[in-house]
Structure formats: structure tokens, C-alpha cells
TrEMBL record:
The keyword Hydrolase applies. One of its GO terms (molecular function) is thiolester hydrolase activity. Pfam families: Palm_thioest (PF02089). This is Palmitoyl-protein thioesterase 1. Keywords: Hydrolase. PANTHER family: PALMITOYL-PROTEIN THIOESTERASE 1 (PTHR11247:SF55), PALMITOYL-PROTEIN THIOESTERASE/DOLICHYLDIPHOSPHATASE 1 (PTHR11247). InterPro entries: AB_hydrolase_fold. It comes from Aegilops tauschii subsp. strangulata (Goatgrass).
């Protein structure tokens, strides 16, 4: 999630968090949404398997720094031995 995001409102939607039905406060974390709890898109299954990381970085929408890119994205792009 970009901490200063001005495109996604609320910014927590980048993590699939959102408002409760019929309200604009508070923002629910993803684990408290129907999308997650009912596993509409497989997010809960992935999270339960330890395959989801909720990362927050400084900056506006898609304004990721080179250092954050190296820290959070590059490790997933490196070759790894097949299991």
C-alpha cells in the first residue's frame, strides 16, 4: 500500500480492505471483509498458505522508490530452483 495514495480511496483497497457495508468509517482490514472471509477470489486461501504479504511503502500511487522496488519486488523476480 502506498501510504500517501491519492488515487485509491481508501488507500487500503490496494490490500482489498474497504468500508463496511453502508458506511464510510472505519476502513476494514482485508481479513474483516466478505471478499476475504468468503474467499471470493482466493485471497484467504493464499494468505492461509503464507503466500500473501501486506507491504506498506512511502509515496503516492505507484510512486515506488528504487530501494523499495529492490527490497519488496526484486526478490520475487530472481530465479529459484524448481521444487
Amino acid at each position: 500500500m502506498f501510504e500517501n495514495d491519492t488515487v485509491l480511496i481508501p488507500r487500503e483497497t490496494s490490500w482489498f480492505g474497504y468500508y463496511p457495508d453502508g458506511a464510510f468509517d472505519p476502513v476494514l482490514p482485508p481479513q474483516q471483509t466478505k471478499l476475504y472471509q468468503e474467499d471470493w477470489i482466493g485471497l484467504k486461501a493464499l494468505d492461509d498458505a503464507g503466500r500473501v504479504k501486506f507491504v506498506s511503502v512511502a509515496g503516492d500511487h505507484l510512486g515506488i522508490s528504487n530501494s523499495d522496488m529492490r527490497k519488496h519486488i526484486l526478490p520475487y523476480l530472481k530465479d529459484k530452483p524448481s521444487a
